[in-house]
Model the fold of this input.
Amino acid sequence: ALLEPAACIAAAAIKAHALPGERVAVVGTGTLGMFAVQFLRAGSPAELLVVGTRDDREALSRRFGATDFRTRDQDLPDDFDVVIETAGSASAARTAAALLRRGGRLVLTGIPGPGADGLDPTDLVVRQLEVHTVFGAPPDAWSHTVRVFGAGLLDPLPLVTHELPLAEFSEAIRLVGSGDPKVGKVLLRP
Done:
């Protein structure tokens, strides 16, 4: 059930082209962010930082392979090789870009609301940042996801917080729309 969002992040990981030993980061701690941590960890980074807005996501981030966790209001470094942004806000995109060293690679996967203030083009040019975007998953990303999952390097189950029978669809919708930070993915079983 969670391979589709994982495939979108596989597309981001492919575009990021993170090499073993590079310093990598993920901005965002939702489902996409946790998949990004797992994909980047599989590439043997020297350091894997996760930046989010909620302290309660640190344990899960570390479980998936993060070596450091910070909230975006803490002091953040500016010398990472690769950053994948998954939060879907303009401020997350700006935070992600600020984490990069000159010549670093940024992959944006989140979609901010219409009219959001974007990245500073002068900053992108002067710092020679390489910027990629992802929307959906092409066939190579799906293949990569299935291989990584089959190899045991991708674990979506900790992201599922509730499993309900299909007959409880309305309860599932209520849970998802509740805004409760303890509600992750809700899985309906037929």
